[in-house]
């Protein structure tokens, strides 16, 4: 079972590239972020007429997440719960959706950027990460394979960016941001890519400016975190750089994990 995470940076703008990638790479599940579309305007038919199952949690012009799956998408939960399982309706940003697909509990996640910092956007990021850590803990209680896939907007370590000095003041590298990511891992989750490739660059994002893609000046912010039950059946995890080199690409590229059946 191949599960990919892909920040598409606007589903309408990238639709030809996305359909092309789905046809060529053929993931079983694609977890999309930053679809930038309300649910009613998502190009659902473009996928369904090709046999894909679709679920969305959209927002006008910003954010938004989706599942594109070969298999039925069951027990869908939209929005990240509040702390202690409380009501999350006060969070108007569409950044989280969770579902069961072929026996695997999967989340598609678009974590807040947090810039500029300090300030309310960074505070929101950290509060959101605390909620994510709480939900990740609850998911472990089910003792089923769990994949937390998405754009985390966290650079885990200096080796995960081309020029660490350029990111020292950024919300993506702050000790608090990295600390909450480690808190999730410390629950028992595995960073799938680092399990396969422990060291070295494995970028998933390149800015559109300053020739970042051509120079390979990237960062790693798209992650797949696996529960112990998912890590036990991990076969591979890689960055698919091909889509980033296409015409009119997203600034992110897919990262995928393969789990044994």
SSE map:
Elements: E1 2-7, H1 11-25, E2 29-33, H2 44-48, E3 53-57, E4 65-69, E5 74-78, E6 96-101, E7 104-110, H3 120-140, E8 146-151, H4 175-186, E9 190-191, H5 192-196, H6 212-215, E10 222-226, H7 228-231, E11 234-239, E12 255-259
Parallel strand pairs: 1-2, 7-8
Antiparallel strand pairs: 1-12, 2-4, 3-4, 5-6, 6-7, 8-10, 9-10, 11-12
Could you please describe the fold and organization of this structure?
This protein is α+β, with helices and mostly antiparallel strands and about 260 residues long. It has a single domain (about 1-260), classed as 4-Layer Sandwich (Deoxyribonuclease I, Chain A). Helix content is about 25%, strand content about 25%. It has seven helices and twelve strands. It has helices at about 10-25, 45-50, 120-140, 175-185, 190-195, 210-215, 230; strands at about 1-5, 30-35, 55, 65-70, 75-80, 95-100, 105-110, 145-150, 190, 220-225, 235-240, 255-260. It has a six-stranded mixed β-sheet. A six-stranded mixed β-sheet has the order 5-6-7-8-10-9. β3 and β4 form a beta hairpin. α3 (about 120-140) runs parallel beside α4 (about 175-185). The relative contact order is 0.17.
């Amino acid at each position: 079972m191949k599960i990919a995470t892909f920040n598409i940076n606007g589903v309408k703008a990238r639709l030809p590239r996305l359909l092309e990638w789905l046809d060529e790479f053929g993931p079983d599940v694609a977890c999309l972020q930053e679809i930038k579309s309300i649910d009613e305007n998502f190009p659902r038919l473009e996928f369904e007429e090709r046999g894909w199952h679709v679920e969305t949690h959209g927002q006008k012009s910003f954010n938004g997440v989706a599942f594109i799956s070969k298999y039925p998408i069951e027990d869908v939960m939209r929005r990240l719960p509040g702390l202690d399982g409380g009501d999350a309706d006060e969070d108007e940003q569409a950044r989280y959706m969770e579902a069961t697909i072929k026996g695997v509990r999967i989340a598609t996640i678009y974590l807040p950027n947090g810039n500029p910092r300090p300030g309310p956007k960074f505070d929101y990021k950290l509060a959101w990460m605390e909620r994510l850590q709480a939900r990740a803990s609850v998911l472990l209680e089910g003792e089923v394979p769990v994949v937390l896939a998405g754009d985390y907007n966290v650079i885990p370590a200096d080796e995960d960016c081309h020029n660490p000095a350029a990111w020292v003041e950024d919300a993506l590298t702050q000790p608090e941001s990295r600390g909450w990511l480690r808190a999730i891992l410390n629950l028992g989750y595995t960073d799938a890519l680092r399990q396969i490739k422990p060291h070295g660059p494995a970028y998933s994002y390149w800015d559109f400016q300053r020739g970042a893609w051509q120079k390979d000046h990237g960062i790693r912010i798209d992650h797949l975190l696996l529960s112990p039950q998912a890590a036990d059946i991990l076969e591979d995890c890689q960055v698919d750089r091909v889509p980033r080199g296409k015409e009119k690409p997203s600034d992110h590229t897919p990262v995928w994990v393969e789990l044994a059946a």
